[in-house]
Amino acid sequence: MAKRWLPKWTSEYRDRHGKPRYRFRRKGFAQYLFKHPPGTEGFRQEYEACKRGLAAPAIEPGAGRAAPGSFDDLIGRYYRSPDFLNPSDRTREVYRGVIERWRVKYGSAKVRDLEARHVEDMMAEMLPYRTAANMLRKRLSALMQFAIRQDMAQTNPVIATRPYEVKGGGFHTWTELEIEQYEACHPLGSKARLALALMLWTGQRGGDARVMGPQHIKHKRLVITQEKTGVTVSLPILPPLAEAIMAAPGGALVFLLSEHGKPYSRKGFGNKIRQWCDEAGLPECTAHGLRKAAARRFAEAGCSNQQIKSWTGHTTDSEVARYTAAANQETLSDAAAEKLMANLRNRLAIKGHNQLNKEA
């Protein structure tokens, strides 16, 4: 029997029932037992999380000797709690990065000594990067809420602070003219054009578009489980997307392959989109801006928030509102006017009908 190929640091063993199991073991890192079998998308995602130190975090020398009551002590407990482990791999990666950068300077401080004025000073140290300062505030608030449950604090002083106001709407939403300009530069059959189609005609994040492949097509629909949220969406494959897929080279597990014949990494894909946008003369455009453009198009077509959420995977109306803020005001006002006049005409028709019945 041919030996099953396994990626680096991965090995097979038999459980007490004789069933094959797989584990990730790397020197200096915690062991991880896979939940999915090799060759599946679930296994690939778990393996990537292990390599990034998320599913199998690094064993920190002296971590077990953290001073009781210190933030080092609290953070160690937090990393083992559902508060940190329940979110997606990508979210945990972002959270850990924020916490660890802060921990370098303040890890040895006592949790009970933290005051609102300290948090405000820490945020001020990060200026002019207001968004980063607000992100730190959120992570510290989450840590202190966890500290209360661990009996390491009585109150959460972060609540008394205020976030910085961040002006602007975040990532620039692509306009229709910018989409046309990009398409004019990158014709059908090119990877650049296919990348645009995968994001624009599905409304998905770049991180999900980069791993889309034939295996995600089921019953003429694209079925995707979003990496960030774990939400699964089933979307009809619209003609422009089908045209872009058919025009591009096929035969691989993913639609988009790098110059090395492998799927793009998250950072590599972002850099490639940046290159393709620059080639088209679109310095303000980004991959995430295409997701916002897709939501804008749905809003301009008069779709409800529920309908938009069924595509984007958002769970709240407030999230959709942020994405559809760039919807064309004139288009929306015209649509509202049509609905208003149609309703008035209907009321007049009913009134006239009732009047005729009375006269009869």
Textual characterization of the structure:
This protein has 360 residues and is mainly α. Among the domains are: 176-327, Intergrase catalytic core (hpI Integrase, Chain A), CATH 1.10.443.10; 329-360. The protein contains 15 helices and six strands. The protein has helices at 41-51, 71-78, 82-85, 89-106, 116-124, 130-149, 176-185, 191-200, 206-209, 239-247, 266-279, 287-300, 305-312, 317-323, 329-359, and strands at residues 10-14, 20-24, 32-33, 217-218, 221-225, 232-236. Strands 1-2-3 form a three-stranded antiparallel beta sheet, with no helix packed on it. Strand 1 and strand 2 form a beta hairpin. Helix 8 (191-200) packs antiparallel against helix 10. It is globular.
What is the secondary structure topology, with strand pairs?
Elements: E1 10-14, E2 20-24, E3 32-33, H1 41-51, H2 71-78, H3 82-85, H4 89-106, H5 116-124, H6 130-149, H7 176-185, H8 191-200, H9 206-209, E4 217-218, E5 221-225, E6 232-236, H10 239-247, H11 266-279, H12 287-300, H13 305-312, H14 317-323, H15 329-359
Antiparallel strand pairs: 1-2, 2-3, 4-5, 5-6
CATH class descriptor of the domain at 176-327: Mainly Alpha
**Could you name the ranges where pLDDT drops below 50 across 5 or more consecutive residues?**
none
Name the CATH superfamily assignment of the domain at 176-327.
Answer: Intergrase catalytic core
Strand content: 5-15%
Q: What is the fold-level CATH name, i.e. the topology of the domain at 176-327?
A: hpI Integrase, Chain A
Using only C-alpha atoms, the radius of gyration works out to 26 Å
The CATH architecture of the domain at 176-327: Orthogonal Bundle
Cα separation of the termini: 90 Å
Helix/strand-derived category reads: mainly alpha
Order of helices and strands: EEEHHHHHHHHHEEEHHHHHH
